[in-house]
Amino acid sequence: MGIIGCGGRGSDVMGHFLRQKDVQWLAVCDARRERQRAGKQMADGRNGNADCAAYTDFREMIARPDLDGVLIATGCHWHALASIYAARAGKDVYCEKPSTLTVAEGRAMVETMKRLGTVYQAGHQRRSVDSFRFMAEVVRKEMIGKLKRVYMEVWETGAVPPEAPQPVPPGFDYEMWLGWTPWHPYTNARVRGWTNFWDTGGGNMVDMGCHWNDTAQFVLQRDDTGPVEYEGEGVFPPPGAFSEVNVRGEWRAAYADGVKLVMRQIGPFEARYIRFEGTDGWVQLVDGTNTVTAEPASILKMRGISAKGWGDAGDHVRNFLDCVKSRNPLTTCHPESAHRATSLGHLGNIAIRLGRKIRFDPKTERILGDPEADRMLSRPLRPPWHL
User: Fold this and answer.
1) Is the pTM of this model over 0.90?
2) pLDDT value of position 158
């Protein structure tokens, strides 16, 4: 294995891999030299030697014939493209969320994995956590009756204060970090707050919201489809602020069978939950906990007891490694499921930014009757990068 992106999240998930006895970590890659050093130190400490190689350009790393797979934990503007490049180099891929920046690159990622037989796992590890699986069982067995709607909530974010252009810090390959996205002068705020800028992120409704969208799709067993209409409203930063995405808001979507989704960005960090409401009750889980609540409360007696924490990614990592060995492409969160779940957030964002309802065809993955909205499904790539 090797890693692309050795920041906080990358180091955390890499730690789960290093606890697997059948993993040998050969290489690390990051645009920042200090993160390369930190990743190499982790790998060398586990390997008991100093052999782990460090790279700035991930294309050099994935050219190694002795690598079987890569962990991708960059900012989300690199997730799909790095996955595609890695697959073309013959590597299997474990990629952090959100798996894409646009709907179009998500479809390109799915088709690449399918064509090349790549084993791909998206980092939606909640699918591998017992409390989420119990919630799925409750809904699928209609313990709350016929499902009517799903409420999802993420926290508000503040605007990024403006900063003047600055010299690129030593040891940071800023051009590599920007990659295929439009060029901007370097500021620490742009790099640190990448999810708040439209060229490199989709805001909290995509960055955290993709987890809830994935949970909804997983529970409803709709990994190959999605809602057919979206509408929403958002509050954007005041003029002069550095952010380019809404700091709070709401989008609403509906599946063809009438089941509704509501995504809200409101309130503090602690108030983040998903709630499934049916004709006869509801079931809810607050993120960051392993606590499920329900009405009727008797539902909770059906739940088994697990000592495993809500955020344990070990089973998710193990599933990926087992699929690599067996060549089973149906990982717990395979490419199609990851792409479809992430697309919900992108489409909700498009409806909010345009301020109007959009109609979406999940089969063709096009927005109907609205050319302006349909063009927002993709973004141009800066040469020499290509899908």
Assistant:
1) yes
2) 86
